Amino acid sequence: MAGELRFGLLGVPAVYDAAGEPRPLRGPKARALLTALLLAPGRVVSADALTQALWGDVPPASARASLQNHVTRLRRLLDDPARLHAVPPGYRLRVADGELDVRVFERHAAAARAAHAARDWDTVEAEAAAALGLWRGAPLSGLSTTTAGDALVQRLEEARLLVLEWRYDAALERAPEREAELSSLVPELASLVTEHPLREAFHRQLMLLLHRTGRQAEALAVHRALRRRLVEELGVEPGDGVRAAHREILSSPGTPAARPVRAVLAGGRPTTSPPRRAPRPAQLPPAPSHFTGREDTARELRERLTGGGAGAPPVVVLSGMAGVGKSALALHVAHGLRERFPDGQLYVNLHGATPGVAPLTPGQALAALLRDLGAEARHAPDDPDAAAALLRSLLAPTRTLLVLDGAASAAQVRPLLPGGAGCGTLVTSRSPLTALDGAARFPLPPLSAEDSTALLRAASGRADLGAGHPLVRLTGRLPLALRIVAARLAARSALTPDALAGLLTDCEGRLRHLEYDDLSVRRSLDVALEALRTSDRDSDRDAARALGVIGALDLPAYGAPLLARLLGLARWRAQAALDRLVDVALLEETAYGRYAPHDLVRDFARAHREPRPADAFGATALRWYGDTARAALLAIAPQGRDREDRLAVPAPTAPEPEDLEGFGSLDAAFAWADEELDNVVALAERHTGDTSGLVPALVRNLFPYLQRRGRLAELGTLAAIAVDTARLHGDPAVTAQALTDLAGHRFMTGRAGEALALNDEALALWHGIGRASCVRRGLNHRGLLLDGLGRRAEAVDALTRALELARSLDDPLSEAITFSHLGNLYEHSDARLAIVHHERSLAIGERIGHAVVRQSAHCNIGYAHLALGEPAAALGHFEVSLRVHGEYEDWHGESHTRLGLVRALRALGRTVEAARACALLLERAAHRGDTHMTGLARHQHGLLLHAQGHPQQAQEQWRSALTALESLDGASPKVVTELRELTGGASSPSGA
After folding, report:
1. How far is 484 from 503, CA to CA, in rounded Å?
2. Were both Cys, which of 327, 514, 714, 740 would link to 521 (CB 3.0–4.6 Å)?
3. Are strands 90-93 and 84-87 parallel, antiparallel or unpaired?
4. What is the DSSP letter of 665?
5. Quick check: 173 and 209 in contact, CB under 8 A?
6. In sequence order, what are the residues at sequence separation of 6 or more whose Cβ sits closer than 8 angstroms to the Cβ of residue 988?
7. What's the pLDDT score for residue 376?
8. Residue 318 region, left (φ>0) first, then alpha (ψ -120 to 50), else beta?
9. Is 211 helix (H, G, I), strand (E, B) or coil?
10. Residues 699, 714: contact at Cβ < 8 Å?
11. Is 520 helix (H, G, I), strand (E, B) or coil?
12. How far apart are CA 245 and CA 210, in angstroms?
């Protein structure tokens, strides 16, 4: 075997030459580099880890360049320099099987152990001699850093001592054949006894050697000295093995040749009769039937568990919520690895999540493992640390797979981990056990829809179950729930999948139907909640309360700030509670700081909701969202009379002090609203009967965000609810603002008739209240809407009155907006005059530094130039408008500018650019649910297709556009008229 060796760690780190001779590396940096690479043979070691190994925590500035130099020097020492090559983010040293002395030693040690258990003494001596012959000194000698693998050194030293014990046992068993050789072993054992004064096995073996070579008095002196030391230093008597050897010495006073051999093995058993041998452990429960899916995860688990080298043995943790299939996957993988772990497979259910059963203590688990490995209960150490050390010693020279199922914590698992590099440990837990150092973690999601359907079919025997059956969704794609459903279907042939789906549709009763025999989703979840409730830790009890609040409020997702308000806790405690719910797999962290329960956990939380009325939590949540939306409004809405008027509407409550801090930036406000919008919609939809004014306050504070982001679908829902709840609240200003916002939504979605009616109702209320600035805004809106409906005389009247009010209020922003509306009005009859009005608006916008006014003015001037047949001039203004849009996000302005850009490019014959711009507009409009702009963009897309010679595709676009625009009230009548003509067969589109 030595002829195959290429690398050595059993002594000073060395490289073997072609003749099989070790050549220790001279320089400390070279030794450290080679050691760091050999501790992970065949795997990539990062440059950072190598730097740490060579220079510790304070590397020099030139460390990276120096590392490359050391790598180059090491390559020159190798038989094949290509063995060591750079692989981002570091380097990998190729080491084949049989080329590293540590691996060869462990292989011989495992063979010696197996032969020792089988009493094959010739093989024990041969394998032990081969293993010990590889040692050139203490492992990893000559290293000056502390990063050289202390755990590996300790494990190898312990394995060497065990091999020595087995070798001496073999010599003692063969004493009648080779008695003359026993005397030569006495000096070796005497030295080991001195070196290890408390290691009883060496004392026992030295006693027997002395006795059988006629030195009975010396043998008894060894016993006496050991006993005195154990009693005085540890307060214990010698173990069974030493006592048995002592009895043999006292009862066999004759010459060695005349006495029967009564050697005592390392386990303390006399060998005049064969010792009881623990069978090779094969404890895995049966592999799960109908195992489905998880192929990629299973493959990676196998690679992790079998890819270990000379470093620490691999440990993998499968984590996930109750019923997600952790144990099934672990057993499926473990059964497939039996041949790779020939010394056995140990299995312990740690009961960290077993209903009605307390988790095993580390001591209980250690006792069970030691018993299964043949250590009798009376010989197993009572001290947990000693028991853990004994377990590591027993497993060190073996290739054994350890499956620890249902772990409660890292502290429960840590003492059970083997030390031998040939072993592997597979842990399942609801927690990812992040405190378990060095473990590879595999969080398990629910099965895919396809795999869920396949499992249902296989386990139920209902091969006709269609893909996408509602049962898949109703079980949450959890393997446990799927197996329960399959068991119920298999047990009752009359029960159809559709009927069972109907039973599960009732969310309040779904968990009752997900129980069968000893299988229960609810009981599995109960374990985690009960442990939190009865814990001594504040964070656990906070987590239990948090789950009850989540069940009461039932929003799509949660963050710490909202939960802190609902629980009345400091934000850090709310965050800790959420993190604990993730640890026990009752919540998932869907994004940083965002948490959501699985559908079945959501049902479970509802069943355990806090006893306070749900409306109390809803009102608290509405107040928090309203206050925070107000802070977002201050960041998003530009300074001006519009923002002041919105903030002046009476609020139902004053903001909480912690919500007055505001957002640090515009981006932060947008990010908060993006994150919370689904919750806001869900909350508002559940409070359509709100009379407190909380819902209207929330919606009006959120309106600037919804408008600028172009979230038209959500705006439509929220604005309609705000109007209804404002009427119930009864405050005219609250109602008028809600009507104004809903009118704004109807205008942006092309429903001008509805918008006009809503705006007029709001305008009447503003008149009654006497809010001149709001009346001015209402008149502005009225003029804009009347213009869109073709009622231009009325529009002029409304806009003229609005302009007068703006001037009387000394409100230049409002004046600029009115000039803009007047320009749009005159565009139909006198485009040059329209440009004059838009330029007045632009001048004011430039003077007051208002991005929206500047953006709108350039866009409107562009449209006026299009009306004059001047697309080149129009294009320049549209491009400027889009650049200004980069300063102030507003979907309504952006979308109309992009539409104008498409028209200008098309008129200039730049069809490729026009098509690209049109595709972008369509994508963004569809994303925002903007039916009006989608229809206008499809109209332009059809014109482009027609110009490119694709009349059939053009017709499809026009029909879609017409359907979209006709669904709206009075949207773009000129475009609708043209689309009707185009879809009726007209051949010369004008492209208005």
Report:
1. 14
2. 514
3. antiparallel
4. S
5. no
6. none
7. 55
8. beta
9. helix
10. no
11. strand
12. 11
Strand-by-strand arrangement of the 14-16 sheet: 7-8, 14-16, 22-24
Rounded to whole angstroms, the Cα distance separating 710 from 144 reads 64
Separation CA 502–CA 522 (nearest Å)? 19
Distance from C-alpha of 428 to C-alpha of 348, rounded to nearest angstrom: 11
Other Cβ atoms within 10 Å of 120 Cβ, number: 16
- Kindly state the tokens that stand for 654: 């004053």
Q: 108: closest CA among 127, 89, 125?
A: 127
Helix axes 200-212, 240-251, angle to 10 degrees: 10
Q: Shortest CA distance to 346 belongs to which of 264, 287, 425, 440?
A: 425
pTM exceeds 0.85: no
Separation CA 71–CA 36 (nearest Å): 12
424/302 Cα distance (integer angstroms): 10
Exposure class string for 740-767: b at 16+ Cβ within 10 A, else e: bbbbbbbbbbbbbebbbebbbbbbebbe
3-state secondary structure of 569: coil
288 near 435, Cβ under 8 Å? no
Number of CB atoms found within 10 A of residue 726's CB: 29
Say if CB 566 and CB 617 are below 8 A apart: yes
Tell me how far apart the alpha carbons of residues 843 and 848 are, in angstroms, rounded to a whole number.
9
Name the residue among 821, 908, 836, 827 with its Cα closest to residue 873: 908
C-beta of residue 407 within 8 angstroms of C-beta of residue 427 = yes
Q: What are the φ and ψ backbone dihedral angles of 398, each rounded to 5 degrees?
A: -110, 165
Give CA–CA dist 763/740, Å, rounded: 8
pLDDT at 278 (0 to 100) = 53
Q: Which residue has the tokens 């001195």?
A: 194
For residue 358, the Cα-to-chain-centroid distance in whole angstroms is: 29
Count of helix runs (H) and strand runs (E) in the chain:
43, 15
Rg (CA), the chain: 40
Q: Distance (Å, rounded) from C-alpha 298 to C-alpha 279?
A: 29
Instruction: Tell me what the mean pLDDT of segment 795-802 comes to.
Output: 89
Which residue do the tokens 């879609």 mark?
960
Q: Rounded CA gap, 798 and 783, in Å?
A: 5
Are 117 and 277 in contact by the 8 Å Cβ rule? The answer is yes
Q: How does pLDDT run across 74-86, given as a tens digit for each residue?
A: 888 888 888 888 8
183-190 long-range Cβ contacts below 8 angstroms, 24+ apart: 183/209, 183/213, 185/209, 186/210, 186/213, 186/215
Q: What is the pLDDT of residues 205-247, one digit of tens each?
A: 888 888 888 888 888 888 888 888 888 877 778 888 888 888 8
- Cβ pair 433, 117 in contact under 8 A: no
DSSP state of 274: P
Q: Residues 123-136: what's their mean pLDDT?
A: 89
> Of all helices (H) and strands (E), which one includes residue 905?
helix 891-907
Q: Residues near 245 by Cβ (< 8 Å), separated by ≥ 6? A: 204, 207, 208, 211, 223, 264
Separation of alpha carbons 169 and 806, rounded Å: 106
Handedness of CA 760, 762, 768, 770 (dihedral sign): negative
For residue 952, with 0-12 CB atoms within 10 Å meaning exposed, 13-18 middle and 19 or more buried, which class applies?
exposed
Residues in a beta bridge with 733: none
Q: What is the DSSP letter of 468?
A: T
DSSP classification of residue 415: G
**What sign does the CA torsion over 824, 829, 834, 835 have?**
positive
Q: Under a CB-based contact definition with an 8 Å cutoff, are residues 900 and 859 in contact?
A: yes
User: Which tokens in the block code for residue 297?
Assistant: 């995860």
- 131, 40 Cβ separation under 8 angstroms: no
Both tokens assigned to 822: 């007047």
In DSSP terms, 519 is beta-bridged to 516
Two tokens, residue 696: 């209207």
Strand order in the sheet with 90-93: 44-46, 90-93, 84-87
Report pLDDT for 256: 42
